[in-house]
Design a protein that fits this description.
The chain is an alpha/beta fold. It is 27% helix and 35% strand. Strands 4-3-1-2-5-6 form a six-stranded mixed sheet. Strand 3, helix 2 and strand 4 form a beta-alpha-beta unit. The two termini are 15 Å apart.
């Protein structure tokens, strides 16, 4: 099995509503996303001969989503009071809501699904919250 991996990153803030710990408070991370694709064989023709795919093409797919999430507040839908949301939007803060709790585990699955829907033969995604802590998703 052949595998290649690319890495992307984004900076954003989040918090974990109803969490009993310091992550209940608003805080930020430099999220690092490592994505791996795999194939049983390499391309046999053309300029991509001997490759699964071009690293740049894979990075561009990942970068499209990491750029969208960069410098924003990532929250679970319904986790802020309507008045708080209205105040933040009035200040033009970038808020992105998700139908899941914004944990590293959930983002690993989110990026896995995103890459799969983009047509990549994704096999694994790791999402680092810190340099030493990551969550991984693979099927």
């Amino acid at each position: 099995m052949y595998k290649i991996q690319v890495k992307g990153f984004f900076d954003s803030a989040h918090f974990l509503k109803d969490y009993d710990g310091k992550c209940a408070n608003l805080h930020g991370h430099r999220w690092v996303v490592e994505a791996e694709i795999q194939a049983e064989s390499l391309q046999e023709d053309g300029s991509f001969r001997g490759m699964i795919m071009d690293f740049t093409d894979m990075k561009n797919v990942l970068r499209a989503e990491t750029n969208r999430l960069d410098h924003s507040l990532l929250i679970e839908e319904g986790s802020l009071k309507p008045a708080t949301m209205a105040a933040l939007k009035e200040e033009n803060f970038r808020i992105i809501e998700f139908p899941f709790r914004p944990t590293a585990e959930c983002f690993a699955k989110y990026f896995y699904d995103y890459l799969k829907k983009s047509g990549l033969p994704v096999s694994m995604v790791r999402v680092y919250e810190t340099p030493n802590n990551y969550a991984c998703y693979e099927e």
